[in-house]
Amino acid sequence: MNNNPNVILIFADDLGRGMLSCYGQQHFETPNIDRLANEGMKFNHAYGCAFCAPSRASMLTGLHDCHQGTWTYTRAGIYKSISTGEMTYSEISELIHTTGLQAEPNDVFLAQIPKEAGYSTGQIGKLEWGFATTAERIHRHGWQYHYGYYDHQRCHGFYPPFLFENGELRNIQGNTHPDCAKHPNSESDENMEIRRNREGKAVYSQDIFNDKIVDFLRKNKDNPFFLYHPSQLPHGPISIPEIHPSVKELNELTTYEKEYASMILKLDETVGIILDELERLGIDDRTMIVFTSDNGHEVYYRQEGRTTGRQRSLSGEPFDDITTKFYSETGGDVFDGNDGMAGLKFSSWEGGTRIPYMVRYPDKIEPDSVSNHMLANYDFMPTLAELFGVNIPNEKDGLSFLSTLMDQTDKQQNHEWIVYASRFGPALVTEDGWKLRYINKNDSFQLYHLSNDYREEKDLSAEHPDLVSHLSTILLTACDGDYRHGTPQAHLVSYPNDN
Hints:
Number of strands: 15
CATH class of the largest domain: Alpha Beta
Radius of gyration: 22 Å
Number of domains: 2
Largest sheet: 11 strands, mixed
CATH superfamily of the largest domain: Alkaline Phosphatase, subunit A
Structural class: alpha/beta
Strand content: 15-25%
Helix content: 25-40%
């Protein structure tokens, strides 16, 4: 194996695996992302978290998101204050550095693994885990170069008036909206006109990132590098400069749906740009590319009478995410973005947490491989460490899956279970396909056997009380003795002057 493989991690935002043609999308093709799967390994049982912030924190720390006191979420939207003149960058930075949990001296983060191995590290896009960060924090986490948004709420718009490069504010000429031109999150004639209005929307953020990615690759082509690209695509509200030619004439899709599909295809274009540049630089054969998403699917193309979200079905039935939940057919999702699974983002149903995951490494990973190995996003840190020959602290939760990638499954260590949080409580999935959900709202458990119940339709908790008791003990221990740690609320922090 090459002693100095480059690694590129592409992290999509709210990308349900059903939106990719390599996982079954029927309305359009994602040829460049498919190429990663066709020339590498595609995973069927990969898990992220229920939404973006914990998923990114989990991956960057190598820890699951049900622990007590592992991290806290910073305030979203705070960087808009620079455009409005309410706060300066130094004032924002001071607030973030004095609020919530801060990194301890011995804490180890993802980018420190390749950095210790002598790699150049770069992060371009939607930076860190949210909801706002600083240059000092990013540097502490091991990133030598970083460019992009410091605030996740600003990522809900795609025309930023400024971004940051290594802590320096970079104005984007022609982009004038303080909220980065965030569009309304529903469809109407009026909202369509807002999306089409180009005033103050000169440069689309993904185009900026594409240029920075190519620049990073060219500058580091002669030395080993680790590049992390957390894209804001295809997180809504829907925003795209133009509808992609491959979906423009599809009669089965509405204009709104075509625009959303074009956001997926814009991300696919980025993957193609990366693949082409690696070949142009002559480093394709010694570069591993990992492509995944933070969480499961979300419906951003809601239209009255056609498509709903997580709240209710087309017939008006409320979804409580306990006994009733979103399915593509009842919610009217023409794309089937959650790949036939139950639920959406924020929930502990499979559709909210099971993610696309593929790895391409020419001449090292067998092309067109499909793996049923169960992995969690916090497994990436130990995998990277094993690839680079670097040790990590024992208290991390992940397990390397490098043996699976290298077709040495007899050496692969497997998770007995993985765990993740959600807005209603934590869930645990076992190696043999059992899944336990805890609902903190009514202090109840649900048990499903995913191997025989892909859609999570049959709750077996009443039939297997002993198994519920056994798995609930494991889950409680994973939550450090309190199921409430398996919710986003456990990581929120109070700010000065909060009511």
